[in-house]
């Protein structure tokens, strides 16, 4: 599998500093984890470390992994700069057992990470690998911004627009896949260049997650449409899934 973030990782945080995450997401995760007695968490698509920082600041024991070596490098730098020494591993989340021999109370796979996998086989392999790294009745949390509603929005979106930098998404999709063409435009005396990154996601919606998670051995599957725990519907801006790992058979 190609590392789509080999170069993009080093400019990824032009989205904003890794501390700049909505409090609603933190409140949601803390509520879910508190209800289930979660202490140890793996972020298996940790990117540049934003959720690792948020979870560590909330007092959890955290580990991070990502398929991209570049993302791991940037995450390590980001966390070290903020005084956190969190174990980080380069790892394909289809095969977590190759890197981790411990299990966790919760695994998170956030911000459209799982849909980087395009086949049913790969999706089920990943979900089963995550389940096998969870403790009895451990939690899996998946989040994404792709929903029935957001798929109807205009295809061009300006997501960052500063005096020195702009980031534009150009989106297209069919029934199975969404492609986001990320256009980065640096326009300052210090840096004048443009870059394009093309990210292809499998379109996974609420019924897809329910089906795949059931097949992979999860129970108590809940799908929310926002961090206030409102149920997902066709007007939701977010798709958030929480599921429990069924106990392993002896």
Task: Based on the model shown, name its key terms.
alpha/beta; Rossmann fold; seven-stranded mixed sheet; 2 domains
Rounded radius of gyration (Å): 18 Å
Overall helicity: 10-25%
Q: What is the CATH topology of the largest domain?
A: Rossmann fold
Number of strand elements: 11
Task: Please describe what this structure looks like.
With about 250 residues, the chain is of the alpha/beta class. It folds into two domains: about 180 residues, Rossmann fold, CATH 3.40.50; about 50 residues, Single Sheet (N-terminal domain of TfIIb). The protein is about 25% helix and about 30% strand. The strands form two sheets. A seven-stranded mixed sheet has the order 3-2-1-4-5-11-10, sandwiched between helices. The model has no long low-confidence stretch (mean pLDDT about 95).
């Amino acid at each position: 599998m190609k590392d789509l973030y080999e170069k993009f990782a080093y400019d990824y945080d032009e989205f904003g500093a890794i501390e700049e995450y909505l409090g609603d997401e933190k409140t949601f995760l803390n509520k879910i984890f508190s209800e289930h007695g979660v202490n140890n968490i793996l972020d298996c698509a940790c990117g540049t470390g934003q959720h690792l920082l948020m979870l560590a600041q909330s007092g959890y024991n955290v580990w991070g992994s990502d398929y991209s070596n570049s993302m791991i490098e940037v995450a390590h730098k980001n966390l070290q700069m903020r005084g956190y020494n969190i174990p980080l591993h380069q790892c394909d989340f289809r095969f977590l057992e190759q890197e981790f021999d411990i299990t966790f109370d919760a695994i998170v796979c956030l911000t459209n990470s799982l849909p980087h996998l395009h086949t049913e086989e790969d999706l089920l392999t990943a979900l089963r690998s995550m389940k096998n790294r969870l403790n009895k009745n451990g939690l899996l949390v998946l989040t994404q911004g792709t929903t029935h509603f957001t798929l109807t929005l205009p295809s061009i979106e300006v997501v960052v627009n500063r005096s020195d930098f702009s980031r534009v998404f150009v989106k297209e999709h069919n029934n199975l896949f969404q492609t986001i063409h990320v256009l980065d435009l640096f326009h300052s005396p210090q840096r004048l260049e443009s870059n394009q990154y093309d990210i292809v996601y499998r379109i996974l919606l609420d019924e897809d997650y329910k089906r795949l998670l059931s097949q992979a051995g999860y129970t108590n599957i809940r799908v929310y449409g926002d961090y206030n725990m409102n149920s997902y519907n066709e007007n939701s801006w977010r798709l958030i899934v929480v599921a429990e790992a069924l106990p392993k058979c002896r």
